[in-house]
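To the team - zinc ion complex, inputs and output below.
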Amino acid sequence: MPSTSTPTQNKRQTIDTLIHARWIIPVVPSQRVYENCSLAIDDGVISAILPTAEARHRFSAREEHQLDQQILIPGLINTHNHAAMSLLRGFADDQPLMTWLEKHIWPAEQQWVSPEFVGDGTRLAMAEMLRSGTTTFSDQYFFPEAAAAAAREAGMRAQIAFPIIDFPNAWSRNGDDAIEKGLTLRDDYRSHSRIGLAFAPHAPYTVGDETLKKIAIYADELQMPVQMHLHETAGEVEKALKDTGLRPTQRLHNLGLLSPQMLCVHMTALDDSDIALVQKTGAHVSHCPRSNLKLASGFTPVAKLLDAGINVALGTDGAASNNGLDMLLETNTAALLAKAVSGNADALPAHQALAMATIHGARALGIDDVTGSIEVGKAADLCAIDLSELEQQPLHDPLSQLIYTANGHHVRNVWVAGKLLLRDRRLMTLNEEELRQRVGVWRDRIAGRTT
Ligand SMILES: CSC[C@H]1O[C@@H](n2cnc3c(O)ncnc32)[C@H](O)[C@@H]1O
Ligand SMILES: [Zn+2]
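Output:
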Protein backbone atom coordinates (compact mmCIF):
# COMPACT_ATOMS: atom_id res chain seq x y z
CA MET A 1 0.00 0.00 0.00
CA PRO A 2 1.25 3.52 -0.70
CA SER A 3 2.44 5.74 2.12
CA THR A 4 -0.03 8.52 2.84
CA SER A 5 2.25 10.66 4.97
CA THR A 6 4.40 13.59 3.94
CA PRO A 7 8.10 12.90 3.27
CA THR A 8 10.61 13.71 6.01
CA GLN A 9 14.38 13.95 6.17
CA ASN A 10 16.62 11.37 7.88
CA LYS A 11 15.66 12.54 11.37
CA ARG A 12 12.73 10.66 12.91
CA GLN A 13 9.70 12.81 13.60
CA THR A 14 8.37 12.70 17.17
CA ILE A 15 4.62 12.10 17.42
CA ASP A 16 2.16 11.18 20.16
CA THR A 17 1.29 7.59 19.26
CA LEU A 18 2.27 4.80 16.89
CA ILE A 19 0.06 1.74 16.52
CA HIS A 20 1.44 -1.27 14.66
CA ALA A 21 -1.27 -3.77 13.73
CA ARG A 22 -1.21 -7.19 12.12
CA TRP A 23 -4.31 -6.23 10.12
CA ILE A 24 -6.09 -2.92 9.45
CA ILE A 25 -9.39 -2.33 7.64
CA PRO A 26 -9.71 1.41 6.95
CA VAL A 27 -13.27 1.00 5.50
CA VAL A 28 -12.81 4.24 3.51
CA PRO A 29 -11.27 4.62 0.95
CA SER A 30 -10.67 0.85 0.94
CA GLN A 31 -12.51 -2.11 2.42
CA ARG A 32 -9.36 -4.18 1.86
CA VAL A 33 -7.48 -5.74 4.74
CA TYR A 34 -4.00 -4.13 5.03
CA GLU A 35 -1.33 -6.33 6.62
CA ASN A 36 1.49 -5.23 8.92
CA CYS A 37 0.70 -1.54 8.74
CA SER A 38 0.92 1.28 11.26
CA LEU A 39 -0.94 4.43 12.20
CA ALA A 40 0.80 7.61 13.28
CA ILE A 41 -1.35 9.74 15.58
CA ASP A 42 -0.74 13.30 16.64
CA ASP A 43 -3.06 15.59 18.58
CA GLY A 44 -5.84 12.98 18.46
CA VAL A 45 -5.79 12.84 14.66
CA ILE A 46 -4.44 10.17 12.27
CA SER A 47 -1.43 11.74 10.56
CA ALA A 48 -0.14 8.77 8.53
CA ILE A 49 -1.03 5.21 7.52
CA LEU A 50 1.97 3.29 6.26
CA PRO A 51 3.83 -0.05 6.27
CA THR A 52 5.22 -0.82 9.73
CA ALA A 53 8.86 -1.00 8.56
CA GLU A 54 8.55 2.51 7.13
CA ALA A 55 6.73 3.81 10.22
CA ARG A 56 9.55 2.65 12.51
CA HIS A 57 12.05 4.34 10.26
CA ARG A 58 10.23 7.66 10.09
CA PHE A 59 8.62 8.19 13.47
CA SER A 60 9.46 8.02 17.13
CA ALA A 61 6.43 8.09 19.41
CA ARG A 62 5.77 8.94 23.04
CA GLU A 63 3.47 5.90 23.17
CA GLU A 64 3.82 2.80 21.00
CA HIS A 65 1.45 -0.18 20.69
CA GLN A 66 2.25 -3.49 19.05
CA LEU A 67 -0.96 -5.34 18.13
CA ASP A 68 0.41 -8.65 16.89
CA GLN A 69 -2.76 -10.72 16.69
CA GLN A 70 -5.27 -7.89 16.49
CA ILE A 71 -7.26 -6.30 13.72
CA LEU A 72 -7.65 -2.53 13.83
CA ILE A 73 -10.91 -1.06 12.53
CA PRO A 74 -12.64 2.32 12.89
CA GLY A 75 -14.37 2.64 16.27
CA LEU A 76 -17.93 1.29 16.08
CA ILE A 77 -20.79 3.79 15.95
CA ASN A 78 -24.01 3.05 17.82
CA THR A 79 -26.62 5.34 16.25
CA HIS A 80 -29.48 4.62 18.64
CA ASN A 81 -29.33 4.01 22.37
CA HIS A 82 -31.08 4.91 25.61
CA ALA A 83 -27.87 4.52 27.60
CA ALA A 84 -29.23 4.96 31.12
CA MET A 85 -31.75 2.18 30.49
CA SER A 86 -28.85 -0.22 31.11
CA LEU A 87 -30.02 0.01 34.75
CA LEU A 88 -33.27 -1.63 33.57
CA ARG A 89 -31.56 -4.53 31.78
CA GLY A 90 -33.61 -7.67 32.40
CA PHE A 91 -36.31 -5.69 34.22
CA ALA A 92 -39.11 -6.70 31.82
CA ASP A 93 -38.50 -9.35 29.16
CA ASP A 94 -40.62 -11.27 26.66
CA GLN A 95 -43.22 -8.56 26.02
CA PRO A 96 -44.25 -6.82 22.81
CA LEU A 97 -43.25 -3.16 22.46
CA MET A 98 -46.38 -1.35 23.68
CA THR A 99 -47.01 -3.70 26.64
CA TRP A 100 -43.33 -3.46 27.56
CA LEU A 101 -43.46 0.35 27.46
CA GLU A 102 -46.89 1.03 28.96
CA LYS A 103 -47.08 -1.66 31.64
CA HIS A 104 -43.44 -1.92 32.70
CA ILE A 105 -40.93 0.64 31.45
CA TRP A 106 -42.85 3.92 31.64
CA PRO A 107 -44.11 3.26 35.21
CA ALA A 108 -40.56 2.32 36.29
CA GLU A 109 -39.15 5.44 34.62
CA GLN A 110 -41.73 7.60 36.38
CA GLN A 111 -40.59 6.23 39.70
CA TRP A 112 -36.81 6.02 39.25
CA VAL A 113 -35.46 8.32 36.56
CA SER A 114 -33.43 11.24 37.93
CA PRO A 115 -30.13 12.94 37.03
CA GLU A 116 -28.40 10.47 39.37
CA PHE A 117 -30.04 7.48 37.61
CA VAL A 118 -29.00 8.85 34.22
CA GLY A 119 -25.40 9.53 35.31
CA ASP A 120 -24.92 6.03 36.75
CA GLY A 121 -26.84 4.28 33.95
CA THR A 122 -24.91 6.12 31.24
CA ARG A 123 -21.57 5.21 32.87
CA LEU A 124 -22.64 1.55 32.99
CA ALA A 125 -23.60 1.72 29.31
CA MET A 126 -20.32 3.40 28.35
CA ALA A 127 -18.31 0.74 30.21
CA GLU A 128 -20.08 -1.94 28.18
CA MET A 129 -19.80 0.01 24.93
CA LEU A 130 -16.07 0.63 25.32
CA ARG A 131 -15.48 -3.00 26.24
CA SER A 132 -17.18 -4.02 22.98
CA GLY A 133 -15.52 -1.52 20.64
CA THR A 134 -17.94 1.40 20.42
CA THR A 135 -16.34 4.84 20.29
CA THR A 136 -19.39 6.96 19.37
CA PHE A 137 -22.99 6.65 20.51
CA SER A 138 -26.18 8.56 20.00
CA ASP A 139 -28.21 8.77 23.17
CA GLN A 140 -31.89 9.57 23.57
CA TYR A 141 -32.90 9.86 27.20
CA PHE A 142 -34.29 12.06 29.97
CA PHE A 143 -31.86 14.45 31.72
CA PRO A 144 -29.56 14.63 28.68
CA GLU A 145 -27.33 17.05 30.62
CA ALA A 146 -26.36 14.14 32.92
CA ALA A 147 -25.59 11.86 29.94
CA ALA A 148 -23.55 14.60 28.25
CA ALA A 149 -21.49 15.21 31.40
CA ALA A 150 -20.85 11.47 31.80
CA ALA A 151 -19.70 11.12 28.15
CA ARG A 152 -17.51 14.21 28.43
CA GLU A 153 -15.77 12.81 31.52
CA ALA A 154 -15.35 9.29 30.12
CA GLY A 155 -13.87 10.63 26.87
CA MET A 156 -16.38 9.04 24.50
CA ARG A 157 -17.77 10.72 21.41
CA ALA A 158 -21.52 11.22 21.76
CA GLN A 159 -24.52 12.69 20.06
CA ILE A 160 -26.90 13.74 22.82
CA ALA A 161 -30.35 13.54 21.24
CA PHE A 162 -32.54 15.36 23.76
CA PRO A 163 -36.00 13.83 24.14
CA ILE A 164 -39.12 15.71 23.08
CA ILE A 165 -42.52 14.42 24.19
CA ASP A 166 -45.78 16.36 24.21
CA PHE A 167 -46.79 15.31 27.70
CA PRO A 168 -45.22 15.87 31.13
CA ASN A 169 -42.39 13.52 32.02
CA ALA A 170 -39.42 13.30 34.40
CA TRP A 171 -37.42 15.90 32.44
CA SER A 172 -39.83 18.28 30.69
CA ARG A 173 -43.34 19.71 31.05
CA ASN A 174 -44.18 19.53 27.32
CA GLY A 175 -42.64 19.74 23.84
CA ASP A 176 -41.81 23.48 24.01
CA ASP A 177 -40.14 23.07 27.40
CA ALA A 178 -38.03 20.18 26.07
CA ILE A 179 -36.94 22.18 23.00
CA GLU A 180 -35.96 25.15 25.17
CA LYS A 181 -33.96 23.00 27.61
CA GLY A 182 -32.32 21.09 24.77
CA LEU A 183 -31.21 24.23 22.97
CA THR A 184 -29.73 25.63 26.19
CA LEU A 185 -27.74 22.41 26.53
CA ARG A 186 -26.60 22.83 22.93
CA ASP A 187 -25.21 26.26 23.84
CA ASP A 188 -23.28 24.70 26.74
CA TYR A 189 -21.57 22.23 24.36
CA ARG A 190 -21.20 24.52 21.37
CA SER A 191 -17.42 24.38 21.24
CA HIS A 192 -16.98 20.81 22.47
CA SER A 193 -15.11 18.59 20.01
CA ARG A 194 -16.71 15.25 21.00
CA ILE A 195 -20.24 16.08 22.14
CA GLY A 196 -22.95 17.21 19.72
CA LEU A 197 -26.66 17.81 20.29
CA ALA A 198 -29.66 16.58 18.28
CA PHE A 199 -33.45 16.81 18.52
CA ALA A 200 -35.18 13.56 19.47
CA PRO A 201 -38.94 13.76 19.08
CA HIS A 202 -39.75 10.39 20.66
CA ALA A 203 -42.25 8.83 18.23
CA PRO A 204 -45.22 9.70 15.98
CA TYR A 205 -47.61 8.58 18.74
CA THR A 206 -46.12 10.83 21.47
CA VAL A 207 -45.46 14.08 19.57
CA GLY A 208 -48.08 16.20 17.80
CA ASP A 209 -47.93 18.10 14.52
CA GLU A 210 -47.30 21.56 16.03
CA THR A 211 -44.22 20.41 17.93
CA LEU A 212 -42.92 18.46 14.95
CA LYS A 213 -43.26 21.52 12.70
CA LYS A 214 -41.26 23.60 15.19
CA ILE A 215 -38.53 20.96 15.32
CA ALA A 216 -38.32 20.91 11.50
CA ILE A 217 -37.88 24.69 11.43
CA TYR A 218 -35.24 24.78 14.20
CA ALA A 219 -33.33 21.81 12.73
CA ASP A 220 -33.15 23.52 9.37
CA GLU A 221 -32.20 26.91 10.81
CA LEU A 222 -29.54 25.53 13.18
CA GLN A 223 -28.46 22.68 10.88
CA MET A 224 -29.00 20.21 13.70
CA PRO A 225 -29.62 16.47 13.38
CA VAL A 226 -32.98 14.93 14.35
CA GLN A 227 -33.76 11.35 15.28
CA MET A 228 -37.09 9.66 15.93
CA HIS A 229 -38.51 6.17 16.48
CA LEU A 230 -40.48 5.54 13.30
CA HIS A 231 -42.43 2.58 11.92
CA GLU A 232 -41.24 0.44 14.82
CA THR A 233 -44.16 -1.97 14.43
CA ALA A 234 -46.93 -2.73 11.96
CA GLY A 235 -49.35 -1.79 14.78
CA GLU A 236 -47.92 1.75 14.88
CA VAL A 237 -48.51 2.16 11.13
CA GLU A 238 -52.06 0.75 11.31
CA LYS A 239 -53.01 2.99 14.23
CA ALA A 240 -51.55 6.06 12.50
CA LEU A 241 -53.55 5.31 9.36
CA LYS A 242 -56.72 5.04 11.47
CA ASP A 243 -56.03 8.22 13.50
CA THR A 244 -54.53 10.51 10.84
CA GLY A 245 -55.22 8.87 7.48
CA LEU A 246 -51.47 8.96 6.83
CA ARG A 247 -48.61 6.54 7.13
CA PRO A 248 -46.14 7.94 9.74
CA THR A 249 -43.37 8.46 7.14
CA GLN A 250 -45.74 10.47 4.92
CA ARG A 251 -46.92 12.52 7.90
CA LEU A 252 -43.33 13.43 8.84
CA HIS A 253 -42.60 14.36 5.25
CA ASN A 254 -45.68 16.62 5.11
CA LEU A 255 -44.43 18.34 8.27
CA GLY A 256 -41.02 19.00 6.70
CA LEU A 257 -39.04 16.57 8.84
CA LEU A 258 -37.57 14.21 6.27
CA SER A 259 -34.19 15.53 5.13
CA PRO A 260 -30.50 14.51 5.21
CA GLN A 261 -30.52 15.65 8.87
CA MET A 262 -33.17 13.07 9.81
CA LEU A 263 -32.38 9.65 11.27
CA CYS A 264 -35.41 7.32 11.17
CA VAL A 265 -34.99 4.69 13.87
CA HIS A 266 -36.32 1.14 13.20
CA MET A 267 -38.33 1.41 9.95
CA THR A 268 -40.16 -1.91 9.82
CA ALA A 269 -43.50 -2.43 8.03
CA LEU A 270 -42.44 -0.31 5.05
CA ASP A 271 -44.16 -0.18 1.70
CA ASP A 272 -42.66 1.10 -1.55
CA SER A 273 -43.99 4.64 -0.95
CA ASP A 274 -42.18 4.84 2.43
CA ILE A 275 -38.90 3.69 0.87
CA ALA A 276 -39.28 6.16 -2.01
CA LEU A 277 -39.83 9.05 0.43
CA VAL A 278 -36.78 8.21 2.53
CA GLN A 279 -34.68 7.81 -0.62
CA LYS A 280 -35.93 11.05 -2.19
CA THR A 281 -35.35 13.16 0.92
CA GLY A 282 -31.92 11.74 1.81
CA ALA A 283 -33.01 10.72 5.33
CA HIS A 284 -31.02 7.95 7.07
CA VAL A 285 -32.17 4.74 8.78
CA SER A 286 -30.95 3.32 12.10
CA HIS A 287 -31.49 -0.44 12.07
CA CYS A 288 -31.70 -2.06 15.54
CA PRO A 289 -32.10 -5.76 14.74
CA ARG A 290 -31.72 -7.31 18.19
CA SER A 291 -34.23 -5.01 19.88
CA ASN A 292 -36.67 -5.56 16.99
CA LEU A 293 -36.26 -9.32 17.29
CA LYS A 294 -36.68 -9.40 21.06
CA LEU A 295 -39.79 -7.19 21.10
CA ALA A 296 -41.12 -9.03 18.01
CA SER A 297 -41.47 -5.60 16.43
CA GLY A 298 -40.98 -6.59 12.78
CA PHE A 299 -38.32 -6.62 10.11
CA THR A 300 -36.43 -3.77 8.46
CA PRO A 301 -35.93 -4.55 4.75
CA VAL A 302 -32.23 -3.66 4.91
CA ALA A 303 -31.22 -5.09 1.52
CA LYS A 304 -34.06 -3.20 -0.20
CA LEU A 305 -33.13 0.06 1.55
CA LEU A 306 -29.45 -0.30 0.61
CA ASP A 307 -30.40 -1.15 -2.99
CA ALA A 308 -32.46 2.05 -3.07
CA GLY A 309 -29.30 3.99 -2.11
CA ILE A 310 -30.46 4.79 1.44
CA ASN A 311 -27.81 5.15 4.16
CA VAL A 312 -28.56 2.41 6.70
CA ALA A 313 -26.65 2.52 10.00
CA LEU A 314 -26.82 0.32 13.11
CA GLY A 315 -28.00 0.85 16.66
CA THR A 316 -28.55 -1.33 19.68
CA ASP A 317 -31.52 0.54 21.18
CA GLY A 318 -31.43 0.46 25.01
CA ALA A 319 -30.14 -2.49 27.05
CA ALA A 320 -33.65 -2.89 28.51
CA SER A 321 -34.87 -4.21 25.15
CA ASN A 322 -31.72 -5.72 23.59
CA ASN A 323 -30.41 -6.73 26.32
CA GLY A 324 -26.85 -5.59 25.61
CA LEU A 325 -24.91 -2.91 23.74
CA ASP A 326 -22.42 -5.06 21.83
CA MET A 327 -22.13 -3.56 18.34
CA LEU A 328 -20.15 -6.53 16.97
CA LEU A 329 -23.02 -8.80 17.98
CA GLU A 330 -25.49 -6.30 16.49
CA THR A 331 -23.53 -6.26 13.22
CA ASN A 332 -23.46 -10.05 13.11
CA THR A 333 -27.23 -10.17 13.73
CA ALA A 334 -27.85 -7.56 11.01
CA ALA A 335 -25.79 -9.57 8.50
CA LEU A 336 -27.65 -12.82 9.27
CA LEU A 337 -31.10 -11.23 9.44
CA ALA A 338 -30.69 -9.40 6.10
CA LYS A 339 -30.09 -12.77 4.46
CA ALA A 340 -33.17 -14.32 6.10
CA VAL A 341 -35.47 -11.35 5.34
CA SER A 342 -34.40 -11.01 1.68
CA GLY A 343 -34.09 -14.74 1.04
CA ASN A 344 -30.61 -14.10 -0.36
CA ALA A 345 -27.44 -15.48 1.21
CA ASP A 346 -25.43 -12.75 -0.50
CA ALA A 347 -27.42 -9.91 1.12
CA LEU A 348 -25.35 -7.71 3.48
CA PRO A 349 -21.92 -9.31 3.02
CA ALA A 350 -19.26 -8.82 5.70
CA HIS A 351 -17.68 -5.70 4.18
CA GLN A 352 -21.06 -3.95 3.87
CA ALA A 353 -22.04 -4.94 7.42
CA LEU A 354 -18.79 -3.40 8.71
CA ALA A 355 -19.49 -0.21 6.74
CA MET A 356 -22.94 -0.02 8.36
CA ALA A 357 -21.37 -0.24 11.82
CA THR A 358 -18.81 2.49 11.07
CA ILE A 359 -18.95 4.98 8.18
CA HIS A 360 -22.71 4.69 7.62
CA GLY A 361 -23.17 5.48 11.32
CA ALA A 362 -20.94 8.54 11.05
CA ARG A 363 -22.96 9.77 8.04
CA ALA A 364 -26.24 9.15 9.85
CA LEU A 365 -25.06 11.32 12.77
CA GLY A 366 -23.59 13.99 10.47
CA ILE A 367 -19.99 13.46 11.67
CA ASP A 368 -18.40 11.58 8.77
CA ASP A 369 -15.92 14.42 8.30
CA VAL A 370 -14.51 13.53 11.75
CA THR A 371 -14.89 9.77 12.30
CA GLY A 372 -16.19 6.47 10.87
CA SER A 373 -13.10 5.42 8.89
CA ILE A 374 -9.32 5.20 9.28
CA GLU A 375 -8.14 8.06 7.10
CA VAL A 376 -5.44 10.69 7.41
CA GLY A 377 -6.97 13.81 8.94
CA LYS A 378 -9.76 11.97 10.78
CA ALA A 379 -9.93 11.51 14.55
CA ALA A 380 -8.11 8.46 15.88
CA ASP A 381 -11.31 6.65 16.94
CA LEU A 382 -10.16 3.04 16.79
CA CYS A 383 -11.02 -0.44 17.95
CA ALA A 384 -8.58 -3.37 18.10
CA ILE A 385 -10.01 -6.89 18.18
CA ASP A 386 -8.07 -10.01 19.10
CA LEU A 387 -8.27 -12.73 16.44
CA SER A 388 -6.03 -15.23 18.23
CA GLU A 389 -8.56 -17.22 20.24
CA LEU A 390 -8.99 -20.89 19.47
CA GLU A 391 -12.64 -20.44 18.47
CA GLN A 392 -11.44 -18.05 15.75
CA GLN A 393 -9.06 -20.53 14.08
CA PRO A 394 -8.20 -21.25 11.36
CA LEU A 395 -7.86 -17.70 10.13
CA HIS A 396 -8.64 -17.88 6.42
CA ASP A 397 -10.12 -14.38 6.26
CA PRO A 398 -9.81 -11.73 9.04
CA LEU A 399 -12.88 -9.82 7.79
CA SER A 400 -15.00 -12.97 7.86
CA GLN A 401 -13.73 -13.67 11.39
CA LEU A 402 -14.56 -10.14 12.49
CA ILE A 403 -18.20 -10.20 11.32
CA TYR A 404 -19.20 -13.86 11.56
CA THR A 405 -17.13 -15.13 14.52
CA ALA A 406 -16.00 -12.33 16.83
CA ASN A 407 -18.06 -10.53 19.44
CA GLY A 408 -17.46 -7.72 21.91
CA HIS A 409 -15.54 -9.97 24.31
CA HIS A 410 -12.72 -10.12 21.76
CA VAL A 411 -12.19 -6.33 21.80
CA ARG A 412 -8.89 -5.50 23.51
CA ASN A 413 -8.05 -1.82 22.94
CA VAL A 414 -10.11 1.25 22.12
CA TRP A 415 -9.05 4.81 21.38
CA VAL A 416 -11.22 7.92 21.06
CA ALA A 417 -9.59 11.03 19.59
CA GLY A 418 -6.22 9.35 20.11
CA LYS A 419 -6.79 8.68 23.80
CA LEU A 420 -6.62 5.08 24.97
CA LEU A 421 -9.92 4.45 26.84
CA LEU A 422 -9.67 0.63 26.94
CA ARG A 423 -6.24 -0.91 27.47
CA ASP A 424 -6.03 -4.67 27.26
CA ARG A 425 -9.74 -4.78 28.29
CA ARG A 426 -9.19 -2.46 31.27
CA LEU A 427 -11.23 0.75 31.38
CA MET A 428 -8.96 3.79 31.69
CA THR A 429 -11.50 6.54 32.44
CA LEU A 430 -14.29 4.68 34.26
CA ASN A 431 -13.89 3.14 37.69
CA GLU A 432 -15.18 -0.42 37.40
CA GLU A 433 -15.38 -1.15 41.14
CA GLU A 434 -17.24 2.07 41.92
CA LEU A 435 -19.58 1.40 39.00
CA ARG A 436 -20.39 -2.11 40.23
CA GLN A 437 -21.19 -0.70 43.66
CA ARG A 438 -23.50 2.04 42.22
CA VAL A 439 -25.29 -0.43 39.95
CA GLY A 440 -25.84 -2.70 42.96
CA VAL A 441 -27.47 0.20 44.83
CA TRP A 442 -29.86 0.77 41.90
CA ARG A 443 -30.69 -2.93 41.66
CA ASP A 444 -31.63 -2.98 45.36
CA ARG A 445 -33.66 0.22 45.08
CA ILE A 446 -35.59 -1.01 42.03
CA ALA A 447 -36.14 -4.41 43.62
CA GLY A 448 -37.70 -2.53 46.58
CA ARG A 449 -35.06 -3.49 49.10
CA THR A 450 -33.91 0.08 49.78
CA THR A 451 -35.01 3.57 48.84
C1 LIG B 1 -37.94 10.16 25.68
S1 LIG B 1 -36.61 9.29 26.34
C2 LIG B 1 -36.77 7.77 25.47
C3 LIG B 1 -38.03 7.05 25.77
O1 LIG B 1 -38.10 6.03 24.84
C4 LIG B 1 -38.46 4.85 25.48
N1 LIG B 1 -38.06 3.72 24.66
C5 LIG B 1 -37.06 2.85 24.87
N2 LIG B 1 -37.00 1.97 23.86
C6 LIG B 1 -37.99 2.30 23.01
C7 LIG B 1 -38.45 1.78 21.81
O2 LIG B 1 -37.88 0.72 21.25
N3 LIG B 1 -39.49 2.36 21.20
C8 LIG B 1 -40.11 3.43 21.74
N4 LIG B 1 -39.72 3.97 22.90
C9 LIG B 1 -38.68 3.41 23.52
C10 LIG B 1 -37.79 4.95 26.80
O3 LIG B 1 -38.30 4.04 27.71
C11 LIG B 1 -38.03 6.39 27.13
O4 LIG B 1 -39.27 6.55 27.74
ZN1 LIG C 1 -35.25 3.39 21.04
